[in-house]
Specification:
Strand content of chain B: under 5%
Shape of chain A: elongated
Number of strands of chain B: 4
CATH architecture of chain B: Orthogonal Bundle
Structural class of chain A: alpha/beta
Oligomer: heterodimer
Radius of gyration of chain A: 23 Å
Order of helices and strands of chain B: HHHHHHEHEEHHHHEHHH
Order of helices and strands of chain A: HHHEHEHEHEEHEHEHEHEHEHEEEEEH
CATH superfamily of the largest domain in chain A: Response regulator
Number of helices of chain A: 13
Radius of gyration of chain B: 21 Å
Distance between the termini of chain A: 68 Å
Distance between the termini of chain B: 31 Å
Largest interface: A-B, 51 and 62 residues
CATH architecture of the largest domain in chain A: 3-Layer(aba) Sandwich
Structural class of chain B: mainly alpha
Chain lengths: ~350, ~325
């Protein structure tokens, strides 16, 4: 009996501490995390004291890390506080927890590279309802979950660049394969679809045969395994196109180590790819593309600031000046939401890789 | 009472204040309190309102903890539940998108989960020599495989009509419905395990299956029931997870089984069976959730949080071993 009483007491104390421990500050909290006060505060144009968060796809994604660096640089130069948050794993589920935590902290804006287009909707809607401004960069969410998307490059521009690279490197014919990230990544799927469309639309691509789209989940080991599987499955393979920084790096290493005749192109980070880029047989990648992730982060930061101070609302036709990056206009996106486009992808080859490899 | 030999044998184990406080659950309560004070001190946003708001997603894993505790007490393991959640969530979204009324959608979630659990149970009870870890590893791959086929090339599905899900994600005041449900289920599962014949049978099977069998316990029937309930709860978890995620994808529910096992083991439930109480698992579950929320709010590197949880887990299983070793040494001296 005594024991029962004690366990009941323990349970009661458990609940009590939770209430006391947590609610001690709730009175003070209502003043800084309440919805109404936040919206009021937003109307003030002073950037000082505001907190801007950026959420990456996963920790250790070099592209996202560079984006976060650019984001941080601009926010801090403007006198704000930047929070860089990495989810526990490269999944939408993990990003939901991160967003929830940011809502608790009462940040002013969230700029996110989404791991899934739709799965973040409930969390991001809750964030927007709490007065937090939401924009996406790198990989977008659906229109309902964002105010504006900072697009690194138009989908067709990228699809065209990559398709022409495949055509050029393969010599105009033969088998080629795609090594992608996760099968749900919206940006990857959009580029792959665009490449497929371009391939069908013009006769000059008719001798190219896309044999497989492999998914390396943006993990180095899995990407390596997938590359080796592609080599084993398709002995006549000529080109692998990896539109992901993790995938292209893993594939480049496999191809170069195995002295394979298969060539590589795609989207990669110059600093990671420098040792693989070259025109001769000793190098696995003749050339590749990428935009500047630092600039993407900086534009994300300027966009966040503009959303928070009310210069833009994310509606089509809104215009703003992104510091020294020039003027940007918000346009309609394919998915019915709005976006702004950073610029066309940039080509890295043997002639310019040395000057870029130290940059990012 | 005095036996024939004149010895006095206590028919109930000795109970005292000291013993209750020093038992594993007592220490967990202290740890829970300490962790809440710690989180409060490091994060100004660690408040009742915020903790409760962040909790629903983590609470879905608690659904899996309850039956998992039973399975661990049996001395077995089920690592397929994460995939069951994925499959059930996928089917739930599909049912909802096909325009089924929400009541039917709930039924689909629970039915898919229950069928998965029943399948595990049928395999394990009909082929008793198979190790549960291998069988459930197999079904883990199978269930996720089916979900991936159903999800198609996009690998993700989202709700076109989330009304029903918005409803179950609702709150009374600041407390989400799921919190009440978890508490009710926690009491139910704890009482059944600790106070009923069924619960005693589970411990008996976990301590010595053969002895339990010869003393007339329906070992296979109980195993089948528990695995089926595991599936049922996975279906329930999927339903509530969908209300947080508004959809499902190929990574939904990844690692849930391990989180549930970690909560149970941290709560003092032995993986070799026959030992531990669900109460411990429940307190440790809340402790882990609070720690994750608190550390998340100070924007600690998530990998670091995982490392901390891993170390805590190892310490949790190490401590009883070390203390029992010390006791043995003392007796020897």
């Amino acid at each position: 009996m005594k024991k029962k009483l004690l366990s009941a007491l323990l349970c009661a104390s458990l609940v009590a501490t939770m209430a006391v421990g947590c609610s001690g500050g709730s009175s003070e909290s209502s003043s800084d995390s309440g919805n109404d006060t936040k919206q009021e505060a937003d109307s003030g144009s002073d950037e000082g004291g505001k907190t801007y968060a950026i959420v990456t796809k996963s920790a250790g994604n070099p592209f996202n890390e560079k984006t976060a660096e650019g984001f941080q640089e601009v926010i801090e130069a403007q006198g704000g506080t930047a929070i860089v948050k990495h989810p526990e794993a490269a999944t939408a589920d993990a990003q939901v927890s991160v967003i929830q935590s940011l809502i608790s902290q009462g940040v002013d804006s969230i700029c996110i590279a989404a791991n899934d287009e739709n799965a973040l909707q409930a969390a991001l809607e809750e964030a927007m309802a709490a007065g937090i401004k939401v924009c996406c960069e790198d990989s977008k969410t659906n229109p309902d979950s964002r105010q504006v998307f900072v697009n690194q490059a138009g989908i067709t521009e990228i699809g065209q660049s990559l398709m022409d690279a495949v055509l050029d490197i393969s010599g105009g014919e033969g088998q080629w394969a795609i090594l992608s990230a996760t099968s749900q990544a919206a940006n990857q799927n959009a580029w792959i679809d665009s490449m497929k469309e371009i391939m069908e639309s013009d006769d000059k691509y008719s001798k190219l045969e896309l044999v497989e789209v492999a998914y390396g989940d943006d993990e180095p080991q899995k990407s390596t395994d997938q590359t080796q599987a592609l080599l084993a499955k398709y002995p006549d393979l000529k080109v692998i196109c990896a539109p992901t920084t993790v995938g292209i790096n893993a594939a480049a290493k496999v191809l170069q180590d195995e002295k394979s005749s298969v060539k590589l192109t795609g989207l990669g980070l110059p600093s990671e790819m420098a040792e693989y880029i070259g025109d001769d047989d000793a190098h696995s990648c003749p050339y590749m593309y990428l935009w500047n992730p630092i600039d993407l982060g900086r534009l994300g930061a300027y966009t966040s600031i503009a959303l928070v101070d009310g210069t833009i609302t994310g509606a089509e036709g809104d215009k703003f000046t992104a510091g020294d990056m020039g003027d940007y206009e918000i346009v309609k996106a394919d998915d019915g939401g709005t976006e702004m486009i950073l610029g066309a992808p940039f080509k890295f080859d043997a002639s310019n890789i040395d000057e870029w490899k130290d940059v990012y | 009472m005095a036996g024939k030999s004149g010895r006095t044998i206590a028919n109930v184990p000795e109970k005292s204040l000291k013993k209750t406080l020093l038992c594993w659950e007592g220490m967990l309560v202290v740890l829970f309190i300490l962790i809440n004070i710690f989180c409060k001190s490091i994060s100004p946003s660690y408040q009742f309102v915020n903790v409760l708001r962040e909790m629903p997603k983590y609470l879905t894993e608690m659904f899996l903890l309850f039956p998992m505790a039973y399975i661990l007490v049996l001395g077995e393991i089920d690592i397929s539940v994460g995939s069951t959640v994925c499959l059930a969530a996928t089917m739930t979204c599909m049912a909802s998108n096909n325009g089924m009324p929400f009541g039917m959608v709930v039924l689909v979630a629970i039915l898919v989960g229950t069928v998965c659990g029943l399948l595990n149970g049928l395999i394990l009870t009909n082929f008793q020599e198979l190790p549960p870890m291998i069988v459930t590893l197999g079904t883990q791959i199978v269930f996720r495989g089916i979900a991936e086929i159903a999800l198609g090339s996009g690998g993700s599905i989202s709700l076109t009509n989330a009304d029903g899900f918005r409803m179950i994600a609702g709150k009374i005041g600041i407390i989400p419905y799921i919190f009440f449900l978890v508490i009710i289920l926690a009491v139910l599962f704890s009482v059944v395990l600790a106070k009923t014949t069924f619960g005693r049978s589970v411990y008996a099977i976990g301590s010595n299956r053969l002895a339990a069998y010869y003393s007339g316990i329906h070992v296979q029937k109980i195993r089948l029931i528990i695995y089926t309930v595991m599936g049922f709860m996975a279906g329930l978890a999927a339903l509530f997870l969908t209300s947080v995620l508004y959809g499902a994808n190929t990574t939904t529910g990844n690692g849930f089984e391990m989180d549930a096992i970690a909560m149970a083991v941290f709560g003092g439930i032995s993986t070799s069976g026959g030992k531990g109480r669900l109460l411990g698992g429940i307190i440790s579950g809340f402790t882990i959730i609070c720690l994750r929320i608190g550390l998340g709010q100070i924007n600690m590197n998530p990998q670091l949080i995982l490392i901390i949880l891993g170390i805590l887990l190892i310490l949790a299983v190490l401590l009883p071993n070390v203390s029992s070793k010390l006791k043995i040494r003392k007796k020897a001296v």
